[in-house]
């Protein structure tokens, strides 16, 4: 009798699991898009300390794009140089990670329409009075993030010793500790860090490059690129983009 009861219970559980699985699949009914992002570049992407979930301007923007375009976003948190390498080989479907559109990158991946304008800016310690812009970094030690346009621009400075870091927070930390003389990084993210440590570091001069962020897309997937661009235009029109800028980028404006 116990064997029959156990068998009956097993059948009921199995049926319940199947029905539950079918229900979950039917409720989503949307394709998944694997999106790479380095969650260490506030205010664009970071890990929420309380929820341990990814958050930031780029993260919320990509979720909004997914809702408009009809796909589920599956974020992959990975180092920035791996983001670029992965996109070049279509390891990911797309990437959003404060990525500046450049000719070299555009040869390896497609880019959406630009959604943010940003430029490189110099940061120094608050007690520094001799460095007032990139022209004063000649022969100096410059901290940058690996594989970024900040690294590219810093390497153009005559006689400078460029020290690349895996994440930009480490560059700002070494700046505070006197290990580098200045940091070159994107203006919006720099402003975020300076606001946190305003008694220790400051920006000098104005942004000295003109850069535009885009969402990277696997070159093979022209359909996804079209969906993303259509969604971006819709989010700009309905005011969502402005709301995100007000929420995340107010300090940098």
Q: What would you say the CATH architecture of the largest domain is?
A: 3-Layer(aba) Sandwich
How much is the average pLDDT?
90
Name of the CATH class of the largest domain:
Alpha Beta
Report the end-to-end length measured between terminal Cα atoms.
Answer: 74 Å
| Approximate helicity band | 40-55%
For the CA atoms, what is the radius of gyration? 23 Å
Strand line-up in the sheet with most strands: 4-1-5-14-6
Full CATH superfamily name of the largest domain: Periplasmic binding protein-like II
Report the strand count: 14
Q: Please tally the helical runs, counting DSSP H or I stretches of 4 or more residues.
A: 9
Q: Give the strand content.
A: 15-25%
Uncertain regions: pLDDT < 50 for 5+ in a row? Answer: 1-27
Structural class: alpha/beta
Largest sheet: 5 strands, mixed
Order of helices and strands: HEEEHEHEHEEEEHEHEHEEEHH
Keywords:
single chain; 253 residues; alpha/beta; D-Maltodextrin-Binding Protein, domain 2; 2 domains; five-stranded mixed beta sheet; 14 strands; 21% strand; disordered N terminus
Task: Detail the topology: elements first, then pairings.
Layout: H1 2-28, E1 32-37, E2 46-47, E3 54-55, H2 57-69, E4 72-77, H3 80-88, E5 94-95, H4 103-106, E6 110-111, E7 116-118, E8 120-125, E9 141-145, H5 149-154, E10 161-165, H6 168-176, E11 182-186, H7 187-196, E12 201-204, E13 211-213, E14 216-217, H8 222-237, H9 240-248
Parallel strand pairs: 1-4, 1-5, 9-10, 9-11
Antiparallel strand pairs: 2-3, 5-14, 6-14, 7-13, 8-11, 8-12
Helix pairs in contact: 2-8, 2-9
